[in-house]
Write a structure and sequence with these properties.
Length: 225
C-alpha cells in the first residue's frame, strides 16, 4: 500500500490491480487524442477500460467530448449532484488540479496536486464508495474514529475540501477510507463535534475488526448483510 499510494508518483494501473485484481478486458479503449485532453486524463480512460467493472460510479470523470471550459479552466470531474467541480488549466502535460463549490462567484482554489496523482486519488475514492466489504457512519466521535482508522494512514496529498474542508483519504493493508468533519447548524469544520467515515476492504476479513468497536452507530455495515 505504501509503495502504491505513498510515493510522489502513484500509478493508476498498479492501484487498480491491487484493489480489483488483474485486468479482464482484452481490448481496452485506446487513449484519446482530443486536443483539450491533458495526458493523464486520456490515460485514465485507457487504463480504466482494462477492467470490465466500472471504476467510477459515484462521481463523473469527463472525457474530451463532455469536459467543458469555465473561467479558463477545463472541468474534468463533477460531483454526482453537480455541487462540486474539479478542473485544470487546459495547457501543460500534467497540470495542477483546482476545485470549487459549483455556485456563482466561487473562485477556483488550487489543490497543490498534479492531475496524474489526483486521478489515482479519484480511483481510491470511487473504490471506497463502490466496495462490497466495509461500513459507513455519518455521526461518529473523534475517539471512535481514531479506532476505526487505527490500521490506516493518511494518503499524502489527499486532503480534500469536498464534501467539506478537512476530509482526508486513508489507506492500509487491504483497507481504504475517507473521513472528515460532519457538522450541523452553528458549527464549522474546525468546531464540529462529530465526524463521518466511509471505510472499505478488499474482502470481509479486512474489515472484520470494525465489528469489535463499540459505540459506533453504523449506517451501513457489510457484516450485517
Amino acid at each position: 500500500m505504501r509503495d502504491l499510494l505513498g510515493s510522489a508518483t502513484p500509478r493508476l494501473d498498479r492501484f487498480l490491480t491491487w484493489w480489483y485484481g488483474q485486468p479482464d478486458c482484452e481490448d481496452p479503449t485506446p487513449m484519446g487524442s482530443g486536443h483539450r485532453t491533458p495526458r493523464p486524463l486520456g490515460e485514465w480512460f485507457e487504463v480504466t477500460s482494462r477492467w470490465s467493472r466500472p471504476v467510477a460510479r459515484q462521481n463523473r470523470v469527463l472525457d474530451a467530448e463532455s469536459a467543458w471550459t469555465e473561467d479558463g479552466k477545463l472541468v474534468f470531474w463533477v460531483e454526482n449532484q453537480g455541487v462540486w467541480l474539479w478542473a485544470v488549466d487546459p495547457t501543460g502535460d500534467d497540470p495542477e488540479v483546482y476545485d470549487r463549490e459549483n455556485t456563482p462567484g466561487q473562485p477556483w482554489q488550487p489543490t497543490g496536486v498534479a492531475l496524474s496523482v489526483f486521478l489515482v486519488h479519484v480511483a481510491v475514492f470511487e473504490a471506497i464508495m463502490g466496495a462490497q466489504a466495509g461500513a459507513s457512519a455519518a455521526w461518529i466521535t473523534s475517539q471512535r474514529l481514531d479506532q476505526v482508522l487505527s490500521p490506516l494512514s493518511p494518503i499524502p496529498g489527499a486532503a480534500w475540501r469536498w464534501p467539506c474542508p478537512m476530509h482526508q483519504l486513508y489507506a492500509g493493508d487491504g483497507l481504504l477510507a475517507m473521513a472528515g468533519p460532519n457538522y450541523g447548524a452553528g458549527e464549522t469544520a474546525d468546531t464540529a463535534a462529530y465526524r463521518e467515515v466511509f471505510i472499505a476492504g478488499r474482502n470481509l476479513s479486512a474489515v472484520s475488526y470494525l465489528a469489535k468497536i463499540d459505540g459506533v452507530d453504523w449506517d451501513w455495515a457489510s457484516w450485517r448483510q
